[in-house]
Fold this protein.
Amino acid sequence: MVTNPSKIELIWSTRAGGNGRTERRYRDIVVDGTALSTMVEGDVISPFGWTTPDEQITVINRLLRRASPDLPGGRVALYVCPECGDLACGAVSLVIEGAEGGLVWRDFGFQNGYDDTVHRDGYESLGPFFFDGYAYHQLWEELKSDAR
């Protein structure tokens, strides 16, 4: 059983537009009261709330470990390019592992879809996060229903 699990939730946020940037309203990922977008580097946002329903469901299935990771090394993209969502533009990724009674998010870094390099500078203090399995699955299943 996970001791002292982290609390995960989603909140609506907006990426400002202008100067060639598209304004995006998206669902940000909040862990223990802190939006992860404030802890990552680069111009990236979660894919939730603005990509197609099918894309969102695919990402949710990866986060639930029901679909294969989308990056080398068994890594899952969590934050992507806010213009197109393409991994080649760069993404914040992590490793998701099962733990007794829950899941762990660990080894955050920045990478792209065309090489195996994971840039970890600036991400050393992010995670690991331990989530209660029931609460974690419930959150993502609710978001999956909303995306449909």
Summary: Residues 8-147 form one domain. The longest strand covers residues 102-111.
